[in-house]
Amino acid sequence: MTVVESAESREPESDEGGVREAAPRPVPSVDSADAYGELMPQTRRALLRRLAVAQAEGRAPSMMGAVVRGGRAVWTGARSSVDGEVPHGDVQYRIGSLTKTFVAVMVLRLRDEGLLRLEDPIGKHLAGVPAPEATIAQLLAHSSGLAAEARGPWWERTPGELRPERADLFGERPQRLAAGRRYHYSNPGYALLGALVEQLRDGESWGEVLRREVLEPLGMARTTLRPEMPHAGGWAVHPWADVMLPEPAQDTGLMGPAGQLWSTTEDLCRWAAFLLRGDARVLSECSVAEMRIPTVPPEGAGWEAGYGLGLQLVRVSGQRTGEGRRLAGHTGSMPGFLAALWIDPEEDVAGIALANCTSGVAISAVAADLVQITAEHEPRIPEPWRPLSGPVDEELLAVTGPWYWGANPFALRLRDGRALELVTLSGSGRTSRFRPEPDGTWTGLDGYYAGETLRVVRADDGSVSHLDLGTFIFTRGPYEPAEPVPGGVDPEGWRGL
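Structure tokens predicted for Serine hydrolase (497 residues):
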């Protein structure tokens, strides 16, 4: 029995209780140099222990874990049930539904190129699909109402040839819920998104588009549609006995965009760095951040999980985080394999966990705990403050400072790249960041004003009169009679009792 097929033997950096901690191979930094340095010994030991407990209690044939911080891999660990077969960072595991995050990035690339809008109904671009009125955004966010699984026998364990045509993916009742009303996970929905990529890339396969437009720019040569040596074998572990059964590794055909990919911890460290910071060669930081915005309302008293545009969203408790740490990423499972990747943008940390077993390991919790351990042992060190780059626009500088919505005080701050930020000075009120637009306005990025337009209104002499933010008027003084306050100001002015 082998756990890893044709794996190279490597000398581990440390070997403690059967857990091998390997020195991370270089992963290109996505941004500036890591401000933290290497992880402290107590942090590394805690990460090692978490991986060891998960592998032992979950009875996984092998497991790998990794942590990304500051745009690079800072820790990797591995454990195997077979002596001499401890996997390393270049060993492939099947990553299942983590594939969906790659498909979502390709769709957003098409959006950013102007080839589609997220509000477009899928029927505008693909003919003969069920629920043609469901939007691309709804497919990305699993709110299209389409069935959870493909028609026919268990698609993850059977060859894709059983479903040769797109119509073969859906049964007699392909849509189970009304589009846009509720979150309902749909694997066939992502098969349609893969077909959408192919349609708008002139018939080129989604896998080839992924390789050329995403994987190659990010240096992810070991992420493939089919397994390539060295790779782990997939196993099922008997629930009541310590014995194993090999699982099939089928080519799922048209269902591939839902979970076909194989990858390595080294490649997934690059992917995590990208999901944290973006990469102009693939997708901008702003568009990547858009993927992390919840798109359907949570169900229940409070939200513990949600979904953005191709990314799962979870909230986990922690010692320092109060209401909980918010993570984005995805989990994945295919016969014989489990995978999870979670990022914490506020801490600039990601955790990755891979195992070659069908069930038994709480893989999502493992990856989340790797993030938690790193963030709580070594909280993020802020990057140094730096002044704006380039010459200062004096007219724009004059717009900054205190503003009032009625009697509520705010301040407008100038950020790099002509971006603006509205902050409250009273401890209450709606705040937002704004990106500049070519027409001289700004668009809200978050909070109540997300998508709303901010305009600087000038008087006849060219001086700044007021701000118009989605029809809300901000003036330089609180209810000044000379200012354009909607509804006017009482002529007797401010007074006491």
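Residues 394-474 form one domain.
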